[in-house]
## 1
Amino acid sequence: MTQIALVTGAAQGLGRAIAGRLLEAGYTVALTDRSAEAAEAAARELDPSGERTLALELDVARKADFESALAAVLARWGALHVAVNNAAMTLTTPVMQISPEEFDRVVSTNQRGTFVGCQVFGAHMATAGYGRIINMASLAGQNGGTATGAHYAASKGAIVTLTKIFAKELAGAGVTVNAIAPGPIESPAVRAAVPPERLEGLIASIPVKRLGDAGFIGDLVVQLARPEAYFTTGATWDVNGGLFMR
Ligand SMILES: NC(=O)c1ccc[n+]([C@@H]2O[C@H](COP(=O)([O-])OP(=O)(O)OC[C@H]3O[C@@H](n4cnc5c(N)ncnc54)[C@H](O)[C@@H]3O)[C@@H](O)[C@H]2O)c1
Ligand SMILES: CC(C)C1=CC=C(C(=O)O)[C@@H](O)[C@H]1O
């Protein structure tokens, strides 16, 4: 049976790499992003025929977008087996200067977006009796991140907790919920956040002395998405080059 997956924030970076690896593994994939055009461009690059992809606008700050994306996937393919709550944003402001509005903006995308994704996709999967949900956390949620990313780090820490809560809720319904917590991965986001003159210092600070690879994050998603991965749930999988060890 063809397995159907949906990825949020799939237009670039890790989300795009995850969608690519899922396609390589034989999945049919809905690439969603707050920008429908960017999702469409990524889908066209990964699947020029358009037979195994669907590009959808899904702003994770809007619950109605999740519901309409799920409806579109079910209308096209009749099932959803795997959901990857990957979309996130960050802003850079010293912690004592973050306004409540700015805090809410980051949290409503990262934390609430993941919460709503787990609710909407989880409810469908529980009714179907099978599903795999993978949430994108971060090293920042484990070690507090940087002094200017408090809202980002706090939202990512909350994703680790939400992953456990939804894992417990859905375990009896054949649905697993796991998180991945990457450290710095070679990606447009890290290139944008780290000026070239600071990149060497960042790499030197990583025990394995390399940035991570987005393709490996995609490979890990494929592993967690397998039916055989039924015995890992509520877990956060660290991919950080040794920057944080439990
Ligand atoms: N790149 C890294 O080193 C790194 C490290 C740790 C965790 N992460 C996590 O991995 C995930 C992907 O990161 P990335 O580096 O690819 O980021 P990115 O900024 O390159 O891509 C994020 C994607 O999400 C989309 N997006 C942003 N806000 C959205 C919204 N409200 N609704 C829907 N889509 C939205 C963007 O349009 C973009 O396509 C994020 O959850 C991030 O926190 C990344
Ligand atoms: C810039 C670098 C130190 C970094 C980039 C992205 C992160 C993220 O969580 O998205 C951080 O974990 C951090 O490693």
Note: The chain has a mean pLDDT of 98.
## 2
Amino acid sequence: MSGFTVKPEPVQVPGLTHLHTGKVRELYATASGELVMVATDRVSAYDWVLPTEIPDKGRLLTALSLWWFERLADLAPSHVLSDAPPPGAPADWKGRTLVCRRLDMVPVECVARGYLTGSGLAEYREGGAVCGVALPAGLEDGSRLDEPVFTPATKAEVGEHDENVSFEAVSAQVGAELAGELRELTLALYGRGREIAEERGVLLADTKFEFGRDAGGRLVLADEVLTPDSSRFWPAEGWAPGRPQPSYDKQIIRDWLTSAESGWDRAADTPPPPLPDEVVERTRAKYVEVYERLTGTPVPFG
Ligand SMILES: N#Cc1c(N)ncnc1-c1cnn(CCN2CCOCC2)c1
């Protein structure tokens, strides 16, 4: 079992239809058919949505996503129409709400990896390849790949892991031409993100993009982009292949949850306990740090 300890009750807003409760975001529709993505302060770890929120996480990741959308706009248009909450929305939606164009979503998680870790490492250790792409022998946890690799996945049901699939499987699912466009665009977007992050001393190990098509059939960048929830960011100074790299944002939580202090047994498949204030504060500080280090600006709110 994993997922929510207690499934949250979404806020009801006049004029909005609630569509979906994700691990850390809520999705609504307006009467005119636009989508409203609301980023919460929820955080997940080890496939559980934790009972303790991280203050300002939703606003920090929304601001970071907007910052990246601007820097990727010459490569792909985005689905974002506005960052202004709809009329009648709760005041605390300000800064963590995106009103988006409704797209015909491509049912593929478009993942790019510049470093080997996580499910990619596990697959590599089994067969020397990831998503059917053969990699050199001798790679370790955290190894930088000679070239970034497109490693798509199919979207999993809530509580399940996405399944890595081959480029050939994506081609069979969406057609070879679109599969080729997805790979090319995913790698181009990853390359831009990695370049900008590295200039700031941050390694972009991997990231997941989602695309949809607009009425004209054009590929549009959807969902969130290049946030700690959709990507692995590592501080360059801490990078050392051959061991798990410290995650920028979740390492503090993971370390506490797996420490004796938490009293939690991950293998017991029981919900994690609430986080101590000190873990919450240090985690919030990490989100602030990754935002300020990447954007070069202070967080845009008090
Ligand atoms: N983005 C977007 C988008 C769009 N622009 N048009 C139509 N559908 C979607 C959509 C619907 N679900 N998802 C999966 C990811 N969700 C993101 C939000 O939070 C919940 C998970 C994408």
Note: The first strand starts at residue 3 and ends at 4.
